[in-house]
Design goal:
- The protein contains five helices and twelve strands.
- The protein is an alpha/beta fold.
- It has a single domain, classed as P-loop containing nucleotide triphosphate hydrolases (Rossmann fold), CATH 3.40.50.
- It has a six-stranded parallel sheet with strand order 5-2-6-7-1-8, with helices on both faces.
- It is elongated and about 50 Å long.
- The protein starts with a strand and ends with a helix.
- One of its GO terms (molecular function) is thymidine kinase activity.
- It catalyses: thymidine + ATP = dTMP + ADP + H(+).
- Its EC number is 2.7.1.21.
- This is Thymidine kinase.
Amino acid sequence: MAQLYFYYSAMNAGKSTSLLQSAYNYQERGMKALLFTAALDDRFGKGKIASRIGLSAPAELFEPTSDLFTETKRFNQTKSLGCVFIDEAQFLTKEQVKQCLRIVDQLNIPVLAYGLRTDFKGETFEGSHYLLAWADKLSELKTVCHCGRKANFVARTDQDGNALRDGAQVDIGGNDKYISLCRKHYAELSQFY
């Protein structure tokens, strides 16, 4: 029975690496996998999922208006899909998370979504919010703060390393803009509480 899985973490926990490894496992066993990634994150090239350790694979792009159910159904008619993988799942809309549920329930195809749980203000993204609420299985991928504790927050910083407290929820970047921290160090840096 297919299920919706949400693998979440702070930045630098290996979400894309884990996704690419899982997709490879399906493909190695002769099962077709459909990969999606957010169109707005093109740091590594359009239509590409890439990990910091050098793994990459081509992927279909999704935007807020994309219909993942219809696209998956179309691919499944020609390729008989074994699984759907979604990178940057925090950027899904509420409707797209519902589409993932339909892929699981109506097409009987597992969906594995990978994304951030919260933004730099400690607030959930829309996609993460509904994945946390509706996914069949939740799994936290862990990364560590500079102190060695589990990092579960992401701080956005300026070029001098000062925490930014205001701004748009989405500002694409990597280690040049963001740092993963434990709650204690996130609160100290961002004056969270």
